[in-house]
Design brief:
The complex is a heterotrimer. By secondary structure, chain B is of the alpha/beta class. Chain B is built from nine helices and ten strands. The chains are: A mainly alpha, B alpha/beta, C mainly alpha. Chain B: GO terms for molecular function: ATP binding.
Amino acid sequence: MTQKVPPLLLLGLLAGALLAPASPVRADSLDRAALVQELCGDAGAMGKAGATLVTTAAAGSAEDREWAAPLARAAIDRKLACDEAGAMLDEGGLDAVTRAPRAAAGTPRSPLLSLKNRPVFELADAAFALRGSPAVAQRTAALKTLERRPALIPEGLLEGAAAAESDAGLREQIDTLSQTAALNASDPAARIRAIGRVAENPSRRALTRISALTADPAYAANPDFRTAVDDATRRIERGIAIGDTLATLYNGLSFASILFMAAIGLAIIFGLMGVINLAQGELIMIGAYVTWLVQQGLRHAAPGLLDWYLVLAIPVAFLATAGIGIALETLLLRHLYKRPLMSLLATWAVSLFLVNIVRVVFGTQNMQFETPFYVSGGVPVIGDFIFTWNRMFAIAFAAVTLALTWLVVRKTPLGLNIRAVTQNRDMAACIGIPTRRVDMMAFGLGSGLAGLAGLALSPIYSVNPQMGQNFIIDSFMVVVLGGVGTIAGTVVAALGIGQINVLIEPLWGAVAAKVIVLLMIIAFLQWRPEGLFAVKGRRK
Amino acid sequence: MSLTAILVDGLTVRFGSFRAIDDLSLAIDYGEVRAVIGPNGAGKTTLLDVISGITRPKQGRVLFDGGLDLTQASESAIARAGLRRKFQKPSVFEGLSVRRHIAIGADVGFRSRLDAPALEDRVSEVLETVGLTDQADRLAGELSHGQKQWLEIGMVLASDPKVLMLDEPVAGLTDEETERTAHLVRALVRPDRAIVVVEHDMDFVERIADRVTVLHEGRTLFEGSMDRVRADAAVVDVYLGR
Amino acid sequence: MSRTSANLPFTLLIAVIVVAAGAMPALSGTSFELSRYLTNAIGQLAAFAVLAISLDLIWGYLGILSLGHGLFFAIGGYVMAMYLLKHSFVVTGTVPDFLQFMGWKEFPFYWAGFDVFPYAFAVAVAVTLLISGIFGYVSFRSRVGGVYFAIITQALVYVAMLLMFRNDTGFGGNNGMTGFSVLFGWPMGTSGMITALAVASLLALALVLVACRRLVGSRFGALMLATRDDETRLRTLGYETLRLKLIVWCLSALIAMLAGMLYVPQVGIINPRVLSPELSLEIAVWVAIGGRGHLVGAVIGALLVNAVKFWLSSAAPDIWPFILSGLIVLVVLVFPNGLMDLAKLRLTRPMGPRRMATELEEARP
């Protein structure tokens, strides 16, 4: 997930595919002297020269383009000096053909572009700039110029430019223009091809563009054209539907990941000690703040590692929140053994304290986080669904946490002790398990997991002293639904609640989603009061 | 009234994959004291849980007095039908006085149906029976373990139950207290009442039980008098191991 | 609890409340007259004390902790605010702010009749009973209790808060409702009205206190304690604990609703923040500090905590959360029965804090 190659590669291939069928009339080799001569000729000759320049920009070799680019600019600026021996580029005293220095032969004259020729040269100039200019800003400006006359853009130019473009945003704009140009071409076959190409990348924008063609005269006149438009519309609509579904699932999955990370600690602690830790949301918040502190520390101590703060903060966030959890258990909850409601109040006091201490120290504003490359951007997959790396980070993080938690609980002595005490505290104590120590360690583990949740959500959600409260109620619901102290229950309940939330939200809004989730949980408890994965047993 | 107070028919209770009671059938008659014994995990308390409606079985039924199917009735309906139970762990209301306990046990309802003097008489009578007259105004939380056991017995017998279930009534008691409890249980025997006792203390069982049912792994291993139980090879195997 | 030793504090408290209620109007015009601020504060404290009683009834006596009692308080408060706005509109023609804010020409249809107080009151009772009844029935039927019940009620009040934050619900949304000018035909904000409201709140407090006292002292009250101590035991004695819990739960909700109705005209505003989980938790803290299972304790806890809060909110608002969390820790660790422990300690020999906490351990988890 830390690689940036896949999206680039994908787009490169895409652009390559676009380029292939539009193979333009390739000017085998440019007759440079003839071109310069035409540039110094009459309006008709200059017109031909302009067309040649445009063709060169679209399909010429890289050397030819580099050679020809200054000519277009010079002609526009009247800096081309025509003389007896051909022409010179004014400023450097270079020969226009050879680019070697030479003296002027006779009185030079700078030809004036006619009103008809000027746009052609401007087009050529912009085309050269788009393909050859080193600065993104200049290429963007060149694209703006091209956008004004889409009908004049030669085939192949934009595809070539897109393939070479390194800036993702600009590349997308070039692609868009390229499609628009093709859709509005004069040749119906080219248009139909273009429609097919647009449909290959379904999105709401593509749909708008294609459905606009139903108003085109060709739609009524040309049955092939109509069929192509209708087919494309269908394909795009299907693509959008798939994309939307995937996007919903993906968002649900990322929300569920955060919920799972917030709830797993809660569930372990609840299963073990019967205590609901109302400060769990604040431990998440502390985890996020510790992440921020690590970022700030790196900024000062090792700016080169700044991008890796999310990774480097993992042990720090875990240990810091685990430490707070252990302190909470030792100082408070240990003395409230078997008094779950009092423990509830005690943990609320801690939550109140943490929120306010953070508020006093850091203020109430949202904290600013760097966005490292591995959590920025994403891959457009289909329709409007973008596989974003920040959500992927949360999902992958949760998956790794799940695996590690499972390993700890299932395969380590601590995990064995936790399971033993969860099932029967008295019996566990009898066979010599230090239950209080297990409580402490488990509380540390649960709290540390909350800290990691805070780290994982910092690239997605805003980080402020109140943030814990946004997750805590939902994670309680996960614990209630999943049942006491089961990892599997927590996973399933988090997935369920996460997906239900994102499914309902677009239909009736976020508030309705929360209402419905709560009602569903209450209804669910009618059916299984102990939660999904509760182990049944005799009344003790 | 039929002769049989409790008829257990093909009862199976499962906790997950564990069969706590496995296709168990037995009958308990009016007028008898029936002891249910067996090693830990044999299903004794689970059997009482099913009879008192706390646990729902997977299969089978439990008929009370030849009519009411207890597996379909609520705990409170079962109690109101005349089946009362003392729990294994003394279960009393720590915040209430001893007197209140007996009053709550004697007369079910949010408001008292008996008139005050009648209730008072009944409470005094029961307190006398279980020997807690002197403790009448103390809070249950302040009582000793043995007193709590008797208080709970008093509470369940105050309503004159037709079926009285006692889950380990002498666990944790001194010999003297056990002796008193044995007398108490025998004094409670009536022709129209069945008493079911779950107990580990074999001497106690021998003193009170008319018949003994030995449960093992959720099934009846043996049924008969205590003498025959002691003589039975299978029972000795189960208890003493091979 | 219901034993004789608690008789003296109870009588004293009732006497103080009634004397305060009687003295306030009598002092008006004399040099001992209380300031408007103080009178108003006393009235608000009385409303909070009623709220604390409502929670103590189910937590202290029934062992069910609700972290969502703000919901019923808010129902009373919102209905009262609706009555006040509609009544003020009918009398003075003032269009409420929130209608103007939403650009609505007239009240939503469900506001019809709210200018008639008996109707508004009946609606408040009906809504409270409906919500508490349904929620209580499904929760108690599935035997949800303890921590589960506490967090589900918290989720309930949280969801209600999100709902009321929406501006399109017709209940004032984010800004809530304010600008009450007339109550029962009398102008609000006058000294007389402030005193009258404070006296009414004190009398309501005395009334609720006496009524609850009678309830918990009765056979029914004993059954409540029995349910708290061992519900299964009581059920297997033939009692329908579901019905008992439901009755007390709904009664408690109604008392909380009443507190809300007393509170809103005195504070002059209602907004969704009364539905925040924090307020509902705070109620539990008042009761814990005063002492669960003691009506007098709940009242004193509510009065004390809120008096300190009133004072601090003007003097040093940032410190309050820290003091509150410190108080909670103190109560749960050292004085599990709150102020009632302090009262007891005075009578017994001194002991260290650890010993004290174990001595004073609550009767049952």
